[in-house]
Amino acid sequence: MKRLHTLTHGFELAQADQRLIGGALKKAGLSAQSPDYEDLFQEAQILYAQTWAQVEVELATFRPYIFQKIVWRTWDYFRRQTRQQEHEQLLTATQTWDQLTTGQTPQFVLEQLQQVWPQLDSWAQIVLQENLLQGRALKQIAAEHQVSDRYLRKVRQQLRERLRRELNVKF
């Protein structure tokens, strides 16, 4: 007896179900004009085929399942992209701090930072120093100070907005 749930059959179904894949990507917030669309569409087809080969369900049951799985995978991709951008911002912030401390930054920026520092509450100072400048993970800082990392993420976001506004520096 021939097994229906093979990888080859999964790819055939994925080819036939392109509207489902496109709809899942759209629901996840990915525009067809996005530069990543084709790559993510192909990844969704691979996910479709691999998942089909792993499960033994009818197609009518499988389609809603794979739709949601593609949406979740796309959201994971967006989260990874966001973390990557934040990491790049941290690297830029570290470079900015290095410039501040080595005297490569104009005096007026140093003066502005000195004016902002005393106005920051203790949590904002901790987040600025330990997370944004030293690159320590918020979870590590939260565990050390016995607060939630969710709270520190909120503090970091508010701090970044303030520094952008007042210093025109991206942290």
Short account of what is shown:
InterPro entries: RNA_pol_sigma_r2 (IPR013325), RNA_pol_sigma_r3/r4-like (IPR013324). By secondary structure, the protein is an all-alpha fold.
Structural class label: mainly alpha
Biggest sheet features: none
Distinct helical segment count? 8
- Give the total of domains: 2
- Rounded Rg: 23 Å
Can you give the mean pLDDT?
83
Helix content: over 70%
How many angstroms does the end-to-end distance come to? 61 Å
Order of helices and strands: HHHHHHHH
Q: Could you list the spans in which at least 5 consecutive residues all have pLDDT below 50? A: none
Global outline: elongated
Number of strands: 0
In terms of DSSP E residues, the strand content is under 5%
Written description of the protein model:
It is a single chain. This protein has 171 residues and is mainly α. The chain folds into two domains: 7-80, no CATH class; 106-167. It has eight helices and no strands. The chain has helices at residues 7-16, 18-27, 37-54, 59-102, 107-116, 122-133, 138-145, 149-167. Helix 1 crosses helix 3 (37-54), helix 2 (18-27) packs across helix 4 (59-102) and helix 3 (37-54) crosses helix 4 (59-102). It starts with 6 loop residues before the first helix and ends with a helix. The model has no long low-confidence stretch (mean pLDDT 83).
